[in-house]
Amino acid sequence: MLMTFFNLQTPERVFVLKVSALEIYNENVIDLLNRESGHLRLLDDPEREIIVEKLVEEVVKDIHHLRHLIGICEAQRQVGETSLNDKSSRSHQIIRLTVESSLREKSGCVKSFLASLNLVDLAGSERASQTNADGARFKEGSHINRSLLTLTTVIRKLSGGKRSGHIPYRDSKLTRILQHSLGGNARTAIICTMSPALSHVEQTRNTLSFATSAKEVTNNAQINMVVSDKKLVKHLQKKVERLEAVLRSPEPSSASYLHIKALRQEREYLAKRVNSKLTVDEREMQYVKWEIPQGGKQRRLQLVNKLWTDPLNMQHIKESAEIVAKLVGFCESGEHVSKEMFELNFANPCDKKTWMGWNLISSLLNL
């Protein structure tokens, strides 16, 4: 399967395989690719499930690189000797392979398909009377059994599609990390091993009971589409750069740019004349009426930006026309503009002539 994956690269899509590995030893999470990072914390993220903080994730170059990384994980894992096993696993191990498929950068698409494969090797349950464990080995066995008991409880609560009551994912680091694999967006396969020896009949019975419950768990696997933060930022940066370039060096024939430039000049021109052409009372009354903040910056420009913003409101149309008439000198402060002054018909715009808006003002100001 992995050999097939490394041959999947196409002109349209790029595939990336990443690997991370951890062990849960005495309920502490340890990075098997970087043990020096110490005990790692688990963080909740509603979009990305459970995150293991500072966990190293290596990009796999080829099959030989992957085997090398898995070899490092096996060498770093905690093992110890007991009466039953010379190399007994003293921790649970999780190796996660993450495959990301995305369109190549030239397509401009920022969404990717994402899938993860969790390979989990659980330490076996132990009886101290059989392993003759004491000291550190006894402590390790206690943590192993406790986490396996939590896993069994979670599986039983999820079995049969009941999912009733509280499911104690957070009672163990193991179940918390594997929460979505156990009862969410995943397809899960479990391999149970047991001994035919009569001395282990109790453990064998418990294992078969666990396997029976696990078979009844129903998950809902879905296609995962994600947006990489880096890709999104890069995409937005390019869009900003493109828009800034248009503003810096617009095409002479760009009608939209010329229109925007004219509007900007008109509004700046009118804003400069607010103080000189309107009385203090007129300004303050209009600020209050159009809900312009008392101590806000550039109140004059905010007032001008409110003009003609409600073309279906006849009162607003009249007020806008009167203010503009005073600002450009068609009538003095305190006077009311006549209907004929702007060749306006103050009937509802949707019933009569085309909305006047800022276009007529451009011709009046000769901008």
TrEMBL record:
<dbReference type="GO" id="GO:0005874">
    <property type="term" value="C:microtubule"/>
</dbReference>
<dbReference type="Pfam" id="PF00225">
    <property type="entry name" value="Kinesin"/>
</dbReference>
<dbReference type="Pfam" id="PF11995">
    <property type="entry name" value="DUF3490"/>
</dbReference>
<dbReference type="InterPro" id="IPR019821">
    <property type="entry name" value="Kinesin_motor_CS"/>
</dbReference>
<keyword id="KW-0067">ATP-binding</keyword>
<dbReference type="InterPro" id="IPR021881">
    <property type="entry name" value="NACK_C"/>
</dbReference>
<dbReference type="InterPro" id="IPR027417">
    <property type="entry name" value="P-loop_NTPase"/>
</dbReference>
<protein>
    <recommendedName>
        <fullName>Kinesin-like protein</fullName>
    </recommendedName>
</protein>
<dbReference type="GO" id="GO:0005524">
    <property type="term" value="F:ATP binding"/>
</dbReference>
<keyword id="KW-0493">Microtubule</keyword>
<keyword id="KW-0547">Nucleotide-binding</keyword>
<dbReference type="GO" id="GO:0008017">
    <property type="term" value="F:microtubule binding"/>
</dbReference>
<dbReference type="InterPro" id="IPR001752">
    <property type="entry name" value="Kinesin_motor_dom"/>
</dbReference>
<dbReference type="InterPro" id="IPR027640">
    <property type="entry name" value="Kinesin-like_fam"/>
</dbReference>
<dbReference type="InterPro" id="IPR036961">
    <property type="entry name" value="Kinesin_motor_dom_sf"/>
</dbReference>
<feature type="domain" description="Kinesin motor">
    <location>
        <begin position="1"/>
        <end position="217"/>
    </location>
</feature>
<dbReference type="GO" id="GO:0003777">
    <property type="term" value="F:microtubule motor activity"/>
</dbReference>
<dbReference type="GO" id="GO:0007018">
    <property type="term" value="P:microtubule-based movement"/>
</dbReference>
<keyword id="KW-0505">Motor protein</keyword>
<comment type="similarity">
    <text>Belongs to the TRAFAC class myosin-kinesin ATPase superfamily. Kinesin family. KIN-7 subfamily.</text>
</comment>
